[in-house]
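Chapter summary example.
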Amino acid sequence: MLEQRIEQQFIDSADLKYQSAQSLSKPIAAAVQAILTSVTSGGKVLACGNGGSAADAQHFAAEFVGRFERERPELAAIALTTDSSILTALANDYAFELIFAKQVRALGGAGDVLLAISTSGHSPNVLAAIEAAHEREMIVVALTGKGGGTISQRLRETDVHVCVPHDRTARIQEVHLLVLHCICDGVDIQLLGDQETPQ
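The structure predicted for these 199 residues follows.
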């Protein structure tokens, strides 16, 4: 019984990825282009999210500053989820809703990208970060699920929305990780050319 349930998890995850491949390839390509334009012009990516999405923000920043699969020059990315002193000070002195927005206002500038990750599309602190990014004339790349939630209503035409067509958080997060790997791979191909990926 348990083994069958585990097998079904794999099948469900794979099915969603197959279903999403065609519908998400265009917005992912747009996200690659937006991020590539920013980092090759001296800009940076600020990434944020809560819980598993916070881990995804940090994962992305690590692969951008370090490397994805091939050696390349360092790319500027900062996860806004990692500095416990900043996070606790802002949550304590202001509101938890502002923990990302105030960092965006402090660190972001025109031409930078905000990578905003929220499986529900309703996270108040991610929504506040998007508003702050727009104030700073930044492009927003939003990763959501569950129809996009409130985030889908706050994005501008120049922003990019990658919305996983599913309602289950675990499945959405699994696709978000693949989306982030696709973005890293796409940026690397644009910078380094298409060559065989290391095994």
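To summarize the output: The radius of gyration is 17 Å.
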